[in-house]
Amino acid sequence: MTKYLITGGAGFIGSNFIHYLLNKYSDIEIINLDKLTYAGNLDNLRDVEDDPRYQFVKGDICDATVVNPLVKACDVVVNFAAESHVDRSIGKPDDFIRTDIFGAFVLLEAARQHGVKRFIQISTDEVYGSTLGEPFKETDPLMPSSPYSASKAGADRLAYSYFVTYDLPVIITRCSNNFGPYQYPEKLIPLFITNALEDKKLPVYGDGQNVRDWIYVMDHCEALDLVVNEGKNGEVYNIAAGNEKPNLFVTHLILEYLQKPKDLIVFVQDRLGHDRRYALNWEKIHALGWQPRYNFEQAIENTIQWYVDNRWWWEKIKNKEFLEYYKRHYKLRE
Question: Cβ(58)–Cβ(34) under 8 Å?
C-alpha cells in the first residue's frame, strides 16, 4: 500500500492526478491537502469524495502544524500547491512568494524529518524564460521573467538543494502548458471556450503570435506516475508533448469547433513581460519510457466538449467577482 500526500489536489492538475491514481491503482491511499483558494474546487473531486482510499484535508502548506503529521503518514509527497496565474503574480506577487517558496520549504522540512520515500516538486517550463532558438533542456540556465516563474524557480532550486544537502529523494518536473477538464477559466483555453459558449469576446494579448508548448493534462498525469515510480533522485525531467502553437491558432481552433464567428476575437494590450515562446526538449522523459498518447487536435476537441457538457461546473465559477476581475484585467467593456 503506497500512501500519497497530494498538495493542491483540488486544483486543475492535482485533481486530475488524483483521478488518475485512483483509477489505476487499487492499493493506494491519498491525502489531498488544499487551502481552497479561489482556484481550488472540491467539485473537481466530488465523484471520489466517498472513496475510502481518498481523504481531503483543508489546510495551508505554509502551516507546519498541519503539514508535519500528514507528511509523517505518507510515503510519497507530490507538491502541486502553488499560486499559478502569471497575470495575478504581476499584480500581487507576495502571495506567490509565500505559497510557492515558503510553502515548498515547509513541505521539504517535513519530508526531511520524516524520511519520505519520494518528493516530487512540480515546477514549470516558465522557469527557463523565453526562447526563439532550440527547445530548453533540463541543464539550461533558469531565467524566469515574472514573479510567478521566479517563485517557481526558487522552489525548484530549493527542492534540489534538499537532495544535495540532506540526500532527500527529490525529483523535479518542469511541464509545459497544460489543458483539459477542471481548469479554472482564467487560463487561456478554458476562458476562450467558456467565453465563446456565452458569445462573449475572446481577449487575445498583443498580436496573438506568442507560442506555447501544449500538453493534455492526462498525458502529464501519466508522465508524473512514471517519474514517481521510475525517476532518478536528484534529477529534473521536462514534460512536454511537442505541441508548439501560437495563441491565435488555438483561438481559431476553439471558434471553429464551436462554430462561432471570428469577430469574437478582440486584441488587447500585451501583458507585461510576456514571454514570446516556450518550448521544451523532452528527450529525457521519453528515454525513461514515456510518450504522449493524445494528439493536440483530439485533446483540444475532448477539452472543448468537456466544457460544453459541464456548464454546471464553470458557470458558477464565472461569478460577479470573477467577471469584475476579468473586465478590469483585460480592460474590457461588455
Answer: yes
